[in-house]
Queue: 3 jobs
Job 1
Amino acid sequence: MPIVDPRTGNPLNTAENASQSSTSQADPSTYIVDVDMSNFQQVVLEGSVNTPVLLDCWAPWCEPCKTLTPILEKLAQEYAGAFVLAKLNIEEHQQIAAQLGIRSVPDVKLISQGQLYDQFQGALPERQIREWLSQYIEAPQEAPPSPEEQAEAALAAGDAASAQAIYQQLAQEYPEHYDYQIGLASAILAAGNATEARTLLDNLPPEHRDAAKARGVRARLEFGEEAPDQQELAALEGRDDSEACYKRALRQVADGHYEAGLEGLLHVMKTDRAYGEDAARRTLLRVFDALGADHPLTVAYRRRLFALLY
């Protein structure tokens, strides 16, 4: 499993990487380790000569840490010894934290050959952490899909029951990883239980309740309440007026077909800006907010909206 420094193209671990055959059989306790003054030198500094070390600096009072650490542990198990996850509680080991210059947590550092190669702060999404890690360590080949990926695939295939079961188990195993609870709310909503989904979202901590992923599920819930039901949609069939186009777009957004819904809303703006007192534009902005500012659809359709307006 090649480990490279993207700045030079050279192996990150210059002391020949351990073979896959040996690391794949390793006991998880050998590559997920709590570090303190007694073993920091051995695990992080000396250990990184043979295997890269991901140093997770966290604290018990840090809410983002409670989201990030389970992700790092899952990746460590998935990579099965290609790197060691060293977890440092800075509250209990302030001397080490001071020596490392830790000012805020979570703070994750990649150590190899006893040297700092890269780092990031904050609870990044799992996909972004994978991309960051893949710059240095090749992901396991033909790795089975993660439970979260299986749940997302089930939702995409319309199997809300399977997605709900997977997210229910993940939420029970990792109660402080709130993305799993948001995923569960999404699956529950897809199964048709809007009241239960709303309750789950309302009970999230404020910083997660207002996050982009939760807003997306809540928007689907609210759009579902506003959108026409199947009987009303059937009555609109064959109509191409502004009202029909707008309501069909609402239904598409409510069902999670964001691109089709955005296209429909933009069409209403182009053809009948006055409809519903500029309802299409206002709804476009609500969808952007639900998806998040960095979502590709938000970026693309915000640009088209700007061009249409100005």
Job 2
Amino acid sequence: MMRRRLFIRLGGLGLALLAGASALHAQVDVKAILDDPDAPMAGDPKGDVTIVAFLDYNCPFCKKASPELEKLARGDGHIRLIYKDWPILSQASVHGAKLALAARYQGKYGAAHAALMGLTGKGRTEDDMTAAVAAAGIDMARLQADLDAHDAEISALLQRNRAQAEALGLEGTPVFLIGPYKIAQALDRDGFAKVVARVRAGARR
């Protein structure tokens, strides 16, 4: 199926508008993207705007945008934020994603995510990522136990994220799905806020 995209300009931002269901690959299951019970979530679970973030912990642009997005979600109070760990840059990226997802079993995904995004630069090693998570106050013995016990579930989630990204035709990280818009670039808080405002304006029409 051909993907139809309409391009608009908003405050200097180039946004791709997914024109309804026909804009998506035939194999995309929108409900699976938005409602995967294993995908970590932040913000308001009943928020009026949902943002889906495809990220890699070795992506410098992800590290730039992720804190800005989280500031917006906290300040706004009505945004549902869904994380899609999509480790595509290195084996260390896979390791980092697994650490973060395993931390979720002790309610610490957010802490692990912030620690990993806080590592400066690209090309960080598995040891770097493990050290960052440990420094965030996460119980590493429990984390290892959860990695071992839930390896199949974590690997399956990463595979689902990868399949969804490929079905959407994503080419790299970061990518943010905000309502009908696909943003494949790092934005600051104001940039994200402008897109959210446009989504809300469209919903009121």
Job 3
Amino acid sequence: MKVLEAAMELERPTTDQQKIDHVTRRITEHGNYLRQRYPILQHQNALGAGVMAVSLIGMVVSGGLYLQGSIPAWGCILINALLTSFIHEIEHDLIHRLYFRKQPLAHNAMMFLCWLARPGMPSPWLRRSLHFHHHKESGTETDVEAWITTSGSPWGVLRLLKLVDGFIFGFLNAVFAPGWREKVRLLVKIVRLNTPFGLLYWGCWYVFLGYHLYAWLGAVSGHEVHSSATTLAVMDVVNSVVVILVAPNLIRQFCLFFISSNMHYYGDVAPRNALQQTQVMNAWWLWPFQLFCFNFGSTHSIHHFVVRDPFYLRQMTAPYAHQVMAEAGVRFNDFGTYKRANRYSLAHTHTRSRG
């Protein structure tokens, strides 16, 4: 017995890299076990395309019911916010080429449909290089994707605004950038990243906000607002687009960025150390946020160890993966990250923001 215990002690991972390799191997093995136990999981392309089709059809049906007056605006917004969270997961898997890897026409068609359903985001083809770099250098100063989601910024009104409105986030970064050359460069980059769908998406949102703010101020001040027939017709279209597409994505994006920016550590992470890159955030009170980003806080850390598994398999793997990750030292529900501006070190309480 003592010999066996000694042998097990020798096999136990001690360095961070050994722990990372151990976690990766165990989760991969469990994923293989689930694929064998449930043969339907081996039809990965069909499952991804199926979820994509159901989500898009659901959005169209929900929007149609709203336009007919069968469901209220808030019902359409919540339904489509939930459905776009599925589409986001599909897009993320597509960025890693988990569906139709050898069939570029089908693969790129799905990428394009994901972009149409989430037009406020840059194209997935542009995001692919950023995301691959995020995996390679997660949490370091060059991790632009993490920074875009506000990781590393101290909590306050500015960070909250950035979470709500990604376009304003980019615009503010450009305005406060040092030097006019840098300002112009960032402004041009914002326009390029949001062309063409993002400009239409954010433009629609700002027209919606501007018109209704104008009408509200008129009502408050006692001056009735009289709009032309053309203006009313345009606003009828704008209102419908906001309810069916814009508002659902704003809710989804806020929930996703709120969870993602706090479960990722940033600024003092050891390079390429998956044990320090993320934590698991699965506290019960986070469920209102998790609902609209497909339980991202609970499962995304798994993805940093095993990239090859699609989003639905991560959900199935989570109970086992969490146990293995906890044994290796991955943190769970470290809410001190709010005070530390997402620094990994528990000693950091006051940090400097990148923007």
